[in-house]
Design goal:
Shape: globular
Radius of gyration: 25 Å
Distance between the termini: 51 Å
Structural class: alpha/beta
Number of strands: 18
Strand order of the largest sheet: 3-2-1-4-7-9-8-10-11
Low-confidence stretches: none
Largest sheet: 9 strands, mixed
Number of helices: 13
């Protein structure tokens, strides 16, 4: 798996075509048949690559995933294509023509940058990863814009490029790394490298503490179809700005530095802010837009009396507010014939599946129950998505 060369030969490429789309249950039979005419290690490598390509479809789409090459870590850690394309477009708008992509991985961001017409120096110190990035640039016809270099990023001269992009490794032998200084390379090194360029972007975990954001950086949290994907520290743009960007779109909410929203009684509508808005600490900005307040000072649910369309939160019409009581909830759902129950929670220790098992929803209707706190008290709110 660490040597792509055999898969890049005509025989290897033919095998990749032969095993495309192989279901896990059919792998043994396919391997047995192909080993009659091909070396067993090559057949195994082709089947393993086919599995990785199937996993990569969610991030890269079928057309690209079927042509690209992957490592297990590369599939897991690479940027989703939609997010990489958004970031590349923003760099293009900033007048960037060349980028030093440090810790490039299998090349997902380099591909998006090159497709935006930006020249890329893609650097990774791992030989297998660098080889994979090089193979992907070739496979997608972008080798003319992407130079892949196997090197330690801390030793690379980036002065010949308009911008620097750094995606430090945030996983180690024990899993995900939460301390930014334990990234590889550490966040402090990445920040120093960013400050040497006219424009820079550092990809970091969305859970980064706000106090870790440098004063001269712009912080942006990005979600895709409601799932928070990453945070980015931008240099050379708008120091001190905080943004939440929602894809597709993009739609960007810029923080106005508002104080925390007031706590108020439940209104007719409950708004669930997008995860990027919450991570960016911009719930107050959404509440101001909706003329709403919080149900609880520590919970990121906004309530309001009127229904207003906003891309930054999902609206629900609330019909019932009850103290937390499973028996009462079960009786209410049975009375209304609710068989499709969506359970959301924020500020509650109860697991949605556990609650669903206990209430045993049955019937033709649907409802959403929120397990949360209202003015500090455990509460159940029942409602449904509002038609905006």
């Amino acid at each position: 798996m660490n040597d792509l060369a055999p898969l890049l030969t005509p025989e290897g490429r033919a095998l990749l075509d032969a095993v495309r789309g192989t279901a896990p249950a059919d792998e043994l039979a396919v391997a047995t048949r192909l080993r009659r005419d091909h070396p067993a290690p090559l057949v195994s490598a082709a089947l393993a690559q086919a599995r990785l390509r199937q996993r990569a479809v969610a991030k890269f789409g079928t057309e690209d995933a079927d042509r690209m090459f992957f490592t297990p870590d590369g599939v897991e850690q690479s940027t989703r294509a939609s997010v990489a394309a958004y970031r590349a477009a923003r760099l293009k708008e900033l007048g960037v023509t060349s980028v030093a992509d440090l810790c490039c991985g299998i090349g997902g961001d380099a591909i998006a940058l090159a497709r935006a017409g930006i020249r890329v120096l893609a650097v990774d110190r791992d030989p297998a990863t660098a080889a994979t990035a090089r193979a992907n640039a070739d496979a997608l016809g972008l080798a003319g814009l992407i130079e892949v270099r196997e090197a330690d990023v801390t030793e690379v001269d980036t002065s010949g490029h308009d911008a620097v992009f750094v995606d430090p490794a945030r996983r180690g032998g024990r899993g995900r790394i939460f301390d930014p200084e334990a990234y590889s390379p550490p966040l402090s090194w990445a920040v120093a490298a960013a400050r040497t360029a006219r424009v820079a972007a550092l990809k970091i975990a969305p859970g980064v503490p706000h106090e870790a954001v440098p004063a001269d950086a712009e912080a942006e949290w990005i979600s895709d179809h409601g799932d928070v994907k990453e945070a980015v520290l931008w240099f050379g743009t708008a120091p001190g700005t905080v943004r939440a960007t929602l894809l597709p779109g993009p739609r960007t909410l810029r923080g106005a530095g508002l104080p925390d929203p007031p706590v108020r009684p439940l209104g007719r509508y409950l708004y669930e802010p997008d995860g990027a808005v919450i991570r960016a600490h911009l719930v107050a900005d959404v509440a101001a837009e909706l003329d709403g307040g919080l149900l609880d000072a520590t919970i990121a649910y906004v309530t309001a009396d009127t229904l207003r369309p906003t891309p930054y939160a999902t609206a629900y019409e609330i019909t019932d507010q009850l103290p937390f009581n499973v028996k009462k909830l079960k009786a209410l759902l049975r009375e209304r014939g609710v068989g499709v129950l969506t359970v959301k929670k924020r500020g509650s220790a109860v697991e949605p599946e556990e609650l669903r098992r206990k209430v045993k929803p049955q019937g033709p209707h649907a409802a959403t129950v929120f397990l949360t706190r209202v003015a500090g008290a455990p509460t159940m709110l029942i409602g449904a998505p509002a038609a905006v």
